[in-house]
Design goal:
The complex is a heterodimer of chains A (about 500) and B (about 325). Helices cover about 35% and strands about 25% of the residues of chain A. Chain A has about 500 residues and is of the alpha/beta class. A six-stranded mixed beta sheet of chain A has the order 6-7-8-3-9-10, with helices on both faces. In chain A, strand 19 and strand 20 form a beta hairpin. In chain A, helix 4 crosses helix 5 and helix 13 packs across helix 14. The longest helix of chain A is centred in the middle third of the chain and has 16 residues. In chain A, about 45% of the residues are buried. The model of chain A has no long low-confidence stretch (mean pLDDT about 85). Chain B has about 325 residues and is mainly α. Chain B has one domain: ABC transporter involved in vitamin B12 uptake, BtuC (Orthogonal Bundle). Chain B has 14 helices and two strands; from the N terminus they run αααααααββααααααα. In chain B, strands 1-2 form a two-stranded antiparallel ribbon. Chain B starts with 16 loop residues before the first helix and ends with a helix. The chains are: A alpha/beta (about 500), B mainly alpha (about 325).
Amino acid sequence: MTPVFEARNISKSFGPVRALSGVTVTIGAGEVHAIIGENGAGKSTLMNILCGKLKPTGGELLRHGQPVVFHSPVDSQAARIGIAPQEISLVPKLSVAENIVLGAHSGRGGLVAWRATRDRATRFLHEIDDTIDPAAKVEALSKAQQQLVQIARAVATEAEILIFDEPTATLTNRETDKLYRFIRRFRAGGGSIFYISHRLDEILDLSDRISVLQDGRSIGQLDPAATSKGEMINMMAGREVKGTHAPRPFVERSEIALQVRGLTRHGEFQDIDFALHKGEILGIAGLVGAGRTELGKCLFGVTVADAGTLEVFGQQVRIDHPADAIARGFVYLPEERKAEGIFPLLSIDENMSLPSYGRFGSALNIGFGDMVREVADYVKRIRIKIGVGADPITSLSGGNQQKVILARWLMRGMKVLILDEPTRGIDVNAKLEIQTVLRGLCDEGLSIIYISSELGEVLEVSDRILVMHEGRIKGVQRADQATQESLLQQAMS
Amino acid sequence: MADPMTLAARPALRASPFTRFRRWEASGALLALLALCALLAVASPYFFTAANLPIVLRNASFVGLVALGQTLVLLIGGIDLSVGAAAGLSAIVGALMLTKFGIHPYAVIPLTMGFGLLLGFANALFVAKLRLNPFIVTLASGEIFAGLNLVITQGYPVRPLGPQFKVFGQSDLFGLPFPVIAFFASAAILWWVLTRTRFGRNIYAVGGNRDAAALVGIRVWRVEFIVFGLAGMFAALAGILYASRMDAAQPSVGEGWMLSAITAAIIGGTSLRGGEGTIVGTVFGALLLTVLQNGTVLLNVSGYWQRVIIGAVVLVAVLVDLVRRR
């Protein structure tokens, strides 16, 4: 039997980074094919290639055995492939109905036939959930309802093959049941579904076949009837850890740099209790949506907690703004380097020294000479590759930009450093260098909170690891005793 | 010793002088100004005369003062459409202080500037604290200021302001008209603040990346508050000096200044998206606008053509800016 769709030997590189190498997946009529893997394994990249959002650097796509090339999502839609992406991408100010048929209104000659459009949208919507009002504005819906609308939009393209990327991430049980019923009906009618999810139970429940991706490679298939959650986790995590750092030997530390008690921000995280010791790297692991970034931002005063207390070196503090945090020696490196880290119009010199201006010259005259000299020192010390300090920061690679931002706080001086995905989009070499710098700083007495979605990385750099799940702390593991399996187990339970 | 110019992602230290000039935001305005002056010097015997130049400079200084404040607002990524009306209302209030309340002429100018500062703070309350769009807020507040002006004056000018007061607008100091000195002194102070002080660099940081600015510990709303306040203050200074020059506060003071001020800043290389622009560029922009007006008069070009020419100059300035960025 020829599969209805096949992606053969697909490779994809982003610059020097290889996201996929030689992945082959196929799907037959009336089949649900689950794709699993850790964060960054290449699942979403693969799905974006299947739906024409990205072009593969190698390999080919076959529809009913015939090669096809998708230049854009329009082409994949014409081939009857629809996607419900992970991120919600609806137009908030428009109605549910209009969102569902967006770009495909009924009518002729550029005029919209409103009644026909609404009827058609309502039909597709009710296939998923008949309690949502098609006339409501999308912004008035809950996150879960928006997710369902997004799924209805994929269905409305009258696709034969649907791609669901983490469809249940924001759904409650009731809505998940509705989705399951739809999926079973769709499959019974001969439709095919690629299904990506971190929820292994639902994959065992729904799928006919499971493919496991790891570091952009397809490393095997599992039969849902014969496999177990444990086997899936082992296979997802079973890679050799690539880093060259030996794990840090565990040391009992007694001096507490930061004590967090009962920290809560409704809808983001609840009852967070932990202690960060002086000189320690505390990793925070968890899946997407576990509340790690939200916690980091709240500790830094970007958002204000609803309840809970913070003690810095035994002294209770109140932090309402990043300026308060910085004054206490608290520093945060944001996940979104481009949006929240760098000042794209300013020079490397200024990007590094902005928070330290108070130290140079007087209030009426910044001492630029001393400042530039000190910047040059840090450039040498942590080996940042730059031309001259007066060049714009945007002339640097991601890894070097990150080093400039790290140096920004070395220059300012700090006691507690919160890092959020500090090595995302950075090549392996720069990653190791940054981690080496961090370890050196800890040995000098700095305390670090290291947030990362890559379990291997957390294991590699941390002393202890806090595991979060849906806004709560599930447990703390010593890095020298933990494994990727044990972390995943805790994060998914 | 590093020159502060090199610190703002402007010319790199090793770049040639030519490249540095090309990358400088104000270069287009300076070249255009020089070209226009050269043209007028050849075309009109009256342009480069001791009688004409002070007139040009004085005319430039009213809009120029307003444009300085506007430049600050544009730098943080905002816009202030109320500056013209704020200048008019402040001029009236200042004139009434003098005539109705008998406040000493020397105290009137700082008091009027303080009043302008308050008008700016009122804008900032909505923009910085309530996070409303500055375009909408200042469009509305501009209407309110202009309306209050008419409510107070009923459309009649406040005059005369008296011989002690009109010296500010009419007499010279060190051979330059007083408003010109006020303009250049304000520009020099702001240039220093923007290039050499922490507050000035924070303005560029906020305009270049608001979120990142908060994350390095800048209290963004405080910067916005002060900047909108200063925009109101400079508008008030321009308004009261203009009233002094006329020896009367006309209800129409400040009409058309808002657009001219934005135009001057844009010609000078200030970006509407924030984070980019210089005080020097705005000074050149204000001078260029005034020289254009002066030139059309000297060359007997119809006043109607003036607006066509100014519009064309703005478009050319934006095109030059586009080329500069390449």
